[in-house]
Write a structure and sequence with these properties.
- This protein is an alpha/beta fold.
- The protein folds into two domains: about 240 residues, 3-Layer(bba) Sandwich (FAD/NAD(P)-binding domain), CATH 3.50.50.60; about 160 residues, D-Amino Acid Oxidase, Chain A, domain 2.
- About 35% of the residues lie in helices and about 25% in strands.
- Strands 3, 4, 5, 6, 11, 12, 13, 14 and 15 form a nine-stranded mixed β-sheet that branches. Strands 1, 2, 7, 8, 9, 10, 16 and 17 form an eight-stranded mixed β-sheet that branches.
- Helix 2 packs parallel to helix 7, helix 2 runs parallel beside helix 11 and helix 4 packs across helix 11.
- The radius of gyration is 21 Å and the shape is globular.
């Protein structure tokens, strides 16, 4: 769907921050490629420590997934922690667990510290469509409780989950009071304002096209301006293209995710559908996720496409999914739908790493980016400031490569089709 905004969130902004493009050669301590949540989070952590930081963004801040996502702020890693444990030494299991849980706290603390108005609302429901999914949620609750997480409550049957999500489609679920939802573009704009006040230099419409490695690596922009720094952070996720290395692109598959915003509903209707104003996601591999926002619009996401081709209009597919869950919304109007690229890894575990001692990257948040981008920024900053080695430890997790060349997209589509078929069979 053609519109002047990348999402409903951009349209909501009354005083959108904007920044000039780079017009000269510059030097700084750390240069960051990507003006999304990872880049801004990294910049704030480093600038708070007194470093001279700059960010280059090829479009405008929040142009990518940071400004297009569903606004879900979710605890933990996007893959089962039991899987993550297989990739790291046993002595680091508690650290890895704590890091995943720390991610939401970083966001909440930053919102409070800098008084960022982004409509934060706590409460989250994982919804089960099959007995297998409900059993997996019970295992999740057991594992998380083992690590001391006390915010989960099993919704053991249809009647239990209907107190949170009033649909006949779910057989049960899991409520998490420690997760929630927010307006992602308001949050991102808040971070940009914080970074600006910390003297971070932000350059929009400034595309990094190559890097020159060395003791002091150099970024070269499309207008041939050069940025010399001690460290470079690649924080563009699925939107990096030019400067990403093969080790990064082989481990990442850009998928297309679509989201839709309805017209505002009256408060009684909202109360009848999602009584406690939680965000909701089902447990399918290609999941549906939704929430009501501050304008009483249902923000409904899903219809993930793994061929990297954006739909002309995602509304019909999303509308069908929405009314399958909530038939009473059959006549509701749609204000906007939009699509964008997200980065996923085969394991659904984020991919952290270094190209060399001076160049860092973080990518592949696999749907948990609102929270985990803040963690990634903090971990990279800790490494640069020699505070901890958490980034290095989590970088040791091995990631399988996606097939290359002409087989990359067909194999990915085939694999996801199998998982969707399993979900459809409810096995």
């Amino acid at each position: 769907m053609n519109n002047p905004y990348n999402s409903i969130y951009t349209k909501d902004l009354s005083n959108k921050l904007s920044f000039n493009s780079l017009q000269d050669d510059i030097e700084c301590d750390v240069s960051i490629v990507g003006g999304g949540l990872t880049g801004l989070s990294s910049a704030i952590e480093l600038a708070e420590a007194g470093l001279n930081v700059c960010i280059v963004e090829k479009d405008y801040i929040g142009y990518g997934a940071s400004g297009r996502n569903g606004g879900h702020l979710v605890q933990g890693w996007p893959s089962d922690f039991s899987k993550i444990k297989k990739y790291i030494d046993k002595k680091h299991h508690n650290m890895a667990w704590d890091a995943g849980i720390e991610a939401v706290s970083i966001v909440k603390n930053r919102i409070k510290k800098y008084n960022i108005n982004c409509d934060l609302q706590m409460g989250y429901v994982y919804a089960a469509l099959s007995n297998r999914q409900l059993s997996e949620l019970a295992e999740m609750e057991k594992e998380w409780s083992h690590y001391g997480y006390k915010h989960l409550k099993i919704l053991k049957d249809r009647n239990s989950i209907k107190k949170f999500v009033n649909t006949d489609r779910y057989i049960g679920g899991l409520f998490d009071s420690g997760s929630g939802h927010l307006h992602p573009m308001k949050y991102l704009q808040g971070l940009a304002n914080v970074a600006k006040n910390l003297s971070v230099r932000i350059f929009e419409k400034t595309k990094a096209i190559k890097r020159l490695d060395g003791k002091f690596p150099v970024l070269v922009t499309s207008k041939n301006y050069k940025i010399k720094s001690s460290k470079i952070l690649f924080c563009g996720n699925a939107y990096l293209e030019n400067v990403a290395t093969k080790n990064m692109t082989d481990k990442l598959a850009p998928a297309i995710s679509s989201v839709m915003a309805t017209e505002p509903l009256d408060k009684d209707k909202i109360k009848s559908l999602i009584p406690k104003n939680c965000a909701v996601a089902d447990c399918n591999t290609a999941l549906d996720y939704y929430r009501f926002d501050y304008k009483n619009r249902l923000i409904f996401g899903g219809s993930s496409i793994y061929s990297n081709i954006s739909p002309k209009d995602a509304t019909p597919s999303l509308f069908k999914k929405m009314t399958y869950l909530f038939p009473s919304l059959n006549n509701i109007g749609i204000e906007m739908s939009w699509s964008g690229r997200i980065g996923i890894t085969l394991s659904r575990i984020p991919h952290f790493g270094k190209i060399n001692d001076n160049i860092y990257f973080a990518q592949g948040y696999s749907g948990h980016g609102v929270a985990l981008t803040g963690l990634a920024g903090k971990l990279m900053a800790e490494s640069i400031l020699n505070k901890t080695n958490r980034f290095e430890i989590l970088s040791e997790m091995q990631h399988l490569s996606f097939p290359g060349g002409m087989f990359r997209t067909p194999v990915l589509v085939l694999g996801m089709s199998w998982f969707k078929f399993k979900d459809w069979l409810k096995i």
